[in-house]
């Protein structure tokens, strides 16, 4: 079965790549090393990493063009559906009893594009641990560690306690790492939190939030940082606020507010 979009896009892609082969006089050996790379990527279990590093931000920018309210961000290769619902509030992201890292309290408000609060928005959060590793992707981490779902309250507010992730280093020895090495690029993404948000009002949105003044903000290997996606953070050292969080040490307070137009809203209309 054909459809118009597939015909337009796939045939144009085919023409573009055939032209590319002619322009650069690509040899059969070079062609085969490219297909071998794609096969190796799948076998290495890197999922969509290669495409996500090089191309996902461009596709996300297309979706964000002319959009009212909060922009979306790249999903990356490590999202897993079905993360457990957290007990709460107060919510604590699933973690080892001795999870390493500076505690982080991530909170904010979710509203419509007009500022009306959205209650019962589902937030689906996933992040790397302090060694820069994701559960179910990297070995030796408990299932669902630093992944979980929770909701906004009646006023559209949410809050969850977790740990601050470090910058993320893409696996160096896999196929994507080999390509980055050959290009002389580094392997790092700035520290980030991944989120999916769901509500009947706006459907499903994907976000990713970065820490101000963090390393690699200006040189993300996936080129996905946008100023609108940077958290507002403060280091909290006040003993009363530390005790209120049930913590024994200073923590990072990170705030981000989302505003979303309804599902099906015409961008720029
Ligand atoms: C990540 O955590 C990520 O977000 C992306 C885009 C690529 C590799 C790892
Ligand atoms: Fe990530």
What does this structure look like?
With 269 residues, the chain is of the alpha/beta class. It has one domain: Sandwich (Protocatechuate 3,4-Dioxygenase, subunit A). Helices cover 24% and strands 23% of the residues. It contains six helices and twelve strands. Strands 1, 2, 5, 10, 11 and 12 form a six-stranded mixed sheet that branches. The protein has a four-stranded antiparallel sheet with strand order 4-3-8-9, with no helix packed on it. A hairpin with a 3-residue loop joins strand 8 and strand 9 (203-210). The mean pLDDT is 95. Bound molecules: 3-methylcatechol (MBD) and fe (iii) ion (FE). The site of fe (iii) ion has 5 residues, from strand 8.
Comma- or semicolon-separated keywords:
269 residues; alpha/beta; Protocatechuate 3,4-Dioxygenase, subunit A; six-stranded mixed sheet; binds 3-methylcatechol
List the helices and strands and how they pair.
Layout: H1 4-23, H2 28-43, H3 49-54, H4 56-64, E1 91-92, E2 103-112, E3 122-126, E4 147-151, E5 157-163, E6 168-169, H5 175-182, E7 188-189, E8 192-199, E9 203-210, E10 232-236, H6 239-244, E11 251-255, E12 258-260
The chain binds 3-methylcatechol (MBD) and fe (iii) ion.
Poorly predicted regions are none
* CATH fold-level label: Protocatechuate 3,4-Dioxygenase, subunit A
**Average pLDDT over all residues:** 95
**Spatial shape:** globular
Q: Give the number of DSSP strands.
A: 12
Distance between the termini: 34 Å
Under CATH at level 1, the class stands as Mainly Beta
Number of domains: 1
């Amino acid at each position: 079965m054909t459809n118009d979009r597939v015909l337009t896009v796939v045939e144009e892609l085919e023409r573009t790549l055939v032209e590319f082969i002619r322009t650069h006089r690509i040899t059969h050996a070079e062609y085969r090393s490219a297909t071998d790379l794609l096969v190796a990527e799948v076998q290495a279990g890197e999922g969509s990493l290669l495409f996500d590093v090089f191309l996902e931000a461009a596709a996300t920018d297309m979706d964000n063009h002319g959009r009212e309210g909060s922009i979306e961000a790249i999903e990356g290769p490590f999202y897993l559906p079905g993360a457990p619902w957290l007990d709460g509030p107060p919510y604590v992201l699933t973690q080892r009893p001795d999870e390493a890292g500076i505690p982080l309290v991530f909170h904010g408000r979710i509203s419509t594009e007009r500022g009306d609060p959205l209650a019962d928005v589902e937030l689906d959060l996933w992040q790397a641990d302090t060694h820069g590793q994701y559960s179910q992707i990297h070995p030796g981490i408990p299932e669902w560690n630093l992944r979980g779902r929770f909701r906004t309250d009646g006023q559209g507010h949410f809050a969850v306690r977790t740990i601050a992730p470090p910058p993320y280093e893409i696996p160096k020895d896999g196929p994507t790492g080999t390509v980055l090495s050959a290009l002389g690029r580094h392997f790092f993404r700035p520290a980030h939190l991944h989120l999916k948000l769901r509500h009947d009002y706006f459907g499903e949105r994907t976000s990713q939030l970065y820490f101000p003044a963090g390393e690699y903000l200006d040189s993300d290997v996936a080129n996905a940082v946008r100023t609108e996606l940077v958290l507002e953070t403060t280091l909290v050292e006040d003993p009363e606020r530390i005790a209120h969080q049930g913590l024994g040490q200073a923590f990072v307070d990170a705030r981000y507010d989302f505003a979303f137009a309804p599902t099906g809203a015409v961008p720029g209309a």
